[in-house]
Queue: 3 jobs
Job 1
Amino acid sequence: MLAGISRSLTRRRPPFPLAATAAAAAAAMSSSSSAASNISDRPISPNTTRVAWVGTGVMGQSMAGHLLAAGYALTVYNRTPSKAQGLVSRGASLADSPRAAAAAADVIFLMVGFPSDVRATALNPSTGALAGLSPGGILVDMTTSDPTLAAEIAAAAAAAGCAAVDAPVSGGDRGARNATLSIFAGGDEAVVARLAPLFQLMGKALYMGGPGSGQRAKLGNQIAIASTMVGLVEGMVYAHKAGLDVAKWLEAISTGAAGSKSLDLYGKRILERDMAAGFYVRHFVKDLGICLSECQAMGLSLPGLALAQQLYVSLIAHGEGGLGTQALILAIERLNNTSLEKKGE
């Protein structure tokens, strides 16, 4: 299985030398530091700062909503305009492209799906955000994406007299709604610090290092979550087959060493067969694929990550990519020809 994964990754993105990656990141960091001197040091506030948001899906809708509620002038763009109407009805302006959104903002946030979306949204010379952002502006990509792409965007932003920060998040739809997200920030440290008034409206930001460091921190987070989710659903299936009350079992382990944020977020949802997406399976598979590509480049073997990725890929094969990551229970149930819904087995 692992050999098959390796071949698949080689076809998708050839390995790249770590030295080249480090050099690119260093160059982007140098460019970002130079650009930072062009970034206004004016304090960020609703009275002085215009904000734009691209991507108003499950997460983006709530995150952008916090900025709007705090009084910031907000311009939004979404490929499906109807998904932005909730924010527009609350006072946001609707743009017809990322470029138009950026032209109306001092800081623009991206929260889209895949690295290809990030590239098109940020770097397209005709419609991309950097084409519309004025010198001194800041682009913040909160999508989980490729670290090397983050460094590329940082260099492109610097060349345009702007700055870019990669700031993917963890905490799911609940964290987005409650403004309790963990935000992993990479880029120029002074720029990240200046963004604090905006980040604080969405959660807690931690500075991780230069361009791409936020993305690598998030990928490590996804690696940890992947194996945690496998353990959670396997434990639930075991408890079920052993004849235990799975709800009571979850309560019992939640305060011990097996307790986790994943259990808190998803244990009850799984029992209630609530598979609605707080974070889509197809996006998690994307994240784990980036993790595996990074591992391949590093010569790093993480078999737990590879196993979790294959189990999640099986959900997509069954047409379940639009469900939430808690749908992993379905894969383990199928392997064992059982279901937590069934009685009297």
Job 2
Amino acid sequence: MAKNLFSLTIFFVTFRETLEAAIIVAVLLGLVNQVVLGDLKGESKSPEWTSVQEKSDPMPITSKITSGEQVGPQEPILQAKLLRRMKLQILFGAGVGLLIAIAIGGAFIAVWFTQATNLWTKAEQLWEALRIFLVVMTNLILLVGAGLFSKAVWAFEENAFQQIVGASIDDTGGTGPGSYDVRGNVWHLDCCSPASGGWQIFNGVLGWQNSATLGSVLSYVFYWLAVIITLVYFKFKEGRTKLFGFESASGKRQREAREKNIVSDTDLDISTAKEGLQTHLHDSP
């Protein structure tokens, strides 16, 4: 009969790491789109300005062509090439990382089944380290998830505001008055815009916005409440804590096992003491 090699713990660890990698790649791809296409939108001119410029320019198109000046939307073509190249680099990096992870995992499996008979005790400090790192990375993933969830709610509200005022309003491209909906607004900063500077990284990873709404703030709070409730529930289900004096089935089994071990140890000590006393009485004259 074939040996069952499926492990639920390994499955969930692999699922979590895969989800983490997918989130990071998605954030990087979104950041590239925002940086490249955002610059293109910021530098584009309105149709009215283009028509006025064409009327005011006395040089004909033929003379422009003969003089060597390019005519046509060359900038969007360059932007598209740059965007495609950066996305390929991100995907290539993710693929290389996957291959490295598979190689390291295969090496661990090979060592474990061939040479490692007592690696746990010999490398206990390393595992105590691979656990602290796990806790830190789990917290980071939760922070990224909170930012993405809050950012998604903010994006829905921003889209509704753009539908009302129209995307051609000039003020909506800045950070001052007119660039955000005052209805339901919690706070707004005229600086630290996620569309410029290093704030793009905070926006892509942690969901930073310089304009907070009731929806984005409440979604952030409710996200953490859901995380806390989930963690407390799993801790209760595993029997590591009690809720309002109630014990889970796993907790009861663990408590009964501990009590049984205590009783067994006590009985063993009593029997050992009796045997010692009988031996002493038998040997005494």
Job 3
Amino acid sequence: MATTTQQVGLATQDTQAISLTGDVRKQLLIHMKGAQVIIPDLQSLTSHWPQRVHPEIERLDEYVQQTLESIFPNDEIRLRKTKASDIAVFGASWWAYAPFEELCIATCLSIWLFVWDDETDSPEFSTIINDWDKASIFRDKTILYLQESLSGSSGSKLSDITTNPIVTSFGPVGEAVSKSCDDRQISTFLDELVFYIKMCEEEQKLEISPRLPTIDEYMRRRMGSGGVRVCLAIQEYTCGITLSREIQDDEAMQCLWDETNIIIVYGFQAQSQTDSLIPLLSVQLGVQGAIDRATDIVRLSVQRFEEAEKRILERYSSIPKVQEDILKFVDGCKYACTANLNWR
């Protein structure tokens, strides 16, 4: 279910309508520079939700270091900067409840999301950020690799598609999910991966454009390019549960997905990009007003999440095992939200 600007309480005014001329991104940075603001305590909004770090974080960190070294064997600068992202802390907080093998696979997925995204949108690392044709070929090959990987194709067939380690680092994830998950789970996971790539494509298209995106455009792309839904799509795997299609299609479950996405994406992040929520909102509301609006978005989203949680648990209260599995999924969403706020 797509998230709308009305759902999160954003005005849909086109940011181009205001008086920014020439290099609008440069003008927007000037507009924000030097602003004195009060930073809200967003962690307090979810302080009653579960949060902890996996007890095997040190062992996970060894896995993360080895994985990153295999991806960047000849790029010491990128390797060092990616290691500095504390990905082990990210994984150990998001999936604090998972068995170690599932924890490693989920963290491997997060590594893949981080490094793949940088390949098309990082001014520091990407060689194709301003080359639409090469970036399109990269995305097409990635989608083909994901499809074949999740169908259980052999290593030789996968290597015929690409040997680029940025793409092939998905291999362990594809192998684990294809062996452990049912057809519905795999299909959902693949759909979310493709949606993520398509929204990253939209992101690149807008970022190389001379104009700023509208709030609607930003919302649509960021709810996909943030990668949150991809991570939620393997949550049954990390929780060790299987939910029916009926449950996943339930309006309350769809609401849980959407609100988790909103809380994580719009949990205040001091992003340097001009094409992000705070700068775009600041055009209409001022910097402090933009931060206050983002805080309201998260606060209201937490409320909607908890209302949806209550609805779906009540709906399946007569089936204890199903309700128990749903609660595991709900708690997984909560861990994701608190982990992201704490990690940032």
